[in-house]
Structures are given as structure tokens and as C-alpha cells.
Amino acid sequence: MVQWFRWITTFYDMIRPIFDVAILAFLLYKTYDLLVKTQAVQMVKGAGFLALVYGLAVLFKLTTLQWVLNILAPGLFIAVAIVFQPELRKIILRLGQSELFRPDSKPRLGQLEAVVTAAEILSQQFRGALVVFPRRVNIKSIIETGTRLNAEISSALIVTVFEFDGPLHDGAMIIQNGRIAAAGCFLPLSEQQDIKKSFGTRHRASLGMSEQSDAVILVVSEETGAISIAFDGKLYYDLSPLEATRKLRELLDRGVLSGEAEQHTRSLTPLTAPPPSVETAVLQEEKDDAVEP
Fold it and tell me: What is the rounded end-to-end Cα distance, in angstroms, of the chain?
């Protein structure tokens, strides 16, 4: 028995450094992923720059610069907390909501096409719609504000919910785990102050939801019939059905952040360009591969 215990102890001592490094690497990766998704990278860059300046001041014995930085340090911490309050709030919110080992709930291609087909029908009829595709961040609190359906995804059902002025018409539909989880849900409105005034409550709600979670939101304008997608606090405005399908597949299948470079994008200039904080982008539609498999 003692020999067996020694063997286990020896084996653990051998693999302990591997576990140590693996856990540390996982935590660093999740921290980086969280910072990128909450757009707090700029805060980290600023802190790193100040640390570099202070290190150089110590290295080259720049006493005056050290004295100034030491005086400003307490105030800088308070200033960072005030200036980056939205980013810090998002980080804390996602730490509380995120499920690290939960995979993305991605709908199948046929289900995405059914949703976009319904959006196209509603767009032609100038009926508004709001459809939320959750990813990793738990939005159970949002689902509980609506009516649970747990129904199969179909264009007919989506059109029925949004086409007429029923009790579920004004809320958002949640599509999770390949099913319509709920409808008539209330979404938080965006905190951005420079949103285009012509955007209604649906666009503001879609941006607000994208700011507080990593969900992808499909929105149909009741005034213009424009189909748009909100993600990561940005709005991809006035997409064609094919472009909307491609963008949904890109964001849901590969989890590409809207801030990353996209090789298949082109700018769209509407009659009145939206403000810089609301990004207007569409995917380039190639004639030779207009229909994807």
C-alpha cells in the first residue's frame, strides 16, 4: 500500500508542471478572450504603456518622472475606473454570466435560411422583427421576460409571431439550441449616445443586447424594411437576404468579432450615413458564388 501511494505521488509530481502550465495558459486565454470581447484591450494597452514608462524611469533613474508618476498613480486608478466604467461593467457582467465549458448553440444552415426567409417576408411587408441568437453568454434572465415557446424553427411561425399586432409582436424572439426558446422578450436599450436618430427602438434594443452579451441579433426595420445584424455593439445595416445569411454564418459558426478585418466586406453609403459608433457594413456579393452550399 505504501509503495502504491509513493508511485501515485511520483506520478503526480511528474505531471504537476504540465497541469500547472495548462491551467495558467487556459486562464490567460480566457482573460484575453474576455478583454477582446468587451473591447477593454485599449485599457490594457494604456496600463501597459504607463508601466513601461515607469520601468524606463526606474531603469534610467529619472527621479523627476518617477516622482510625478508616484504622485499621479492614485488618481490614475480612479480615472481608469471612471473612464472605463462601461468596459469594467461588461467584464464583471460576463464573468457572472459566462459558462466557460458551454459550447456555442449554433443553428443549422437550414434553420438560418428559414429565419432569413421570414425576415425577407417581413421586410417586404414593412413589419418589424427582432431575433436573438445567443452564443456563450447566458441570457436566461432575458428569456424569462418573454413567453417560452420551445418550438421548431420555421419561417411560417416566425412570420406569424411578427406579422400581426399580437402580444408577442413588439418583443424579441430568442433562438437557442436550434429551437425557438421564447418570444416577446424585452431587451436592454443601447447606452450609446450618438446613435442615428432615425433608428427606432428595435435597433437600439439590438445594439443594447449586443453590448451586454456576445449574442448576434437580426433586426428588421418596420419603417424602412431594412434587414440588419447587431453584434459586439456594432450594427451591420441594410443587408440583402444573402448577405444576412452569410453574416449570420460567419458570426455564429466561426465567432468572428465585428472588429476584426473581413476580407469579404464592402462599405454601404445610405442616404444619411450612420455615426462612427454604429458601423455600417455589408458582405461582398460575388456573382460567381451567389449560392453557397
Answer: 61
Would you list the domain boundaries of the chain?
2-97, 109-289
Q: Which superfamily does 109-289 belong to?
A: DNA integrity scanning protein, DisA, N-terminal domain (3.40.1700.10)
Kind of pairing, strands 129-133 and 172-176?
A: parallel
**CA atoms within a 13 Å half-sphere pointing along the CA-CB vector of 225:** 10
Pairwise CA distance, residues 5 & 1, whole Å? 6
Residue 265: strand, helix, or coil: strand
pTM of the model: 0.60
| pLDDT tens, position by position, 60-81 | 888 888 888 888 888 877 877 7
Name the burial class of residue 39, with classes exposed (0-12), middle (13-18) and buried (19+) by CB atoms within 10 angstroms of its CB. middle
Cell of 197: 436618430
Q: Which three cell numbers stand for residue 122?
A: 417581413
Question: For residue range 154-211, what is the model confidence (pLDDT) as tens digits?
Answer: 999 999 999 877 888 889 999 998 899 999 999 999 877 778 877 889 999 999 999 8
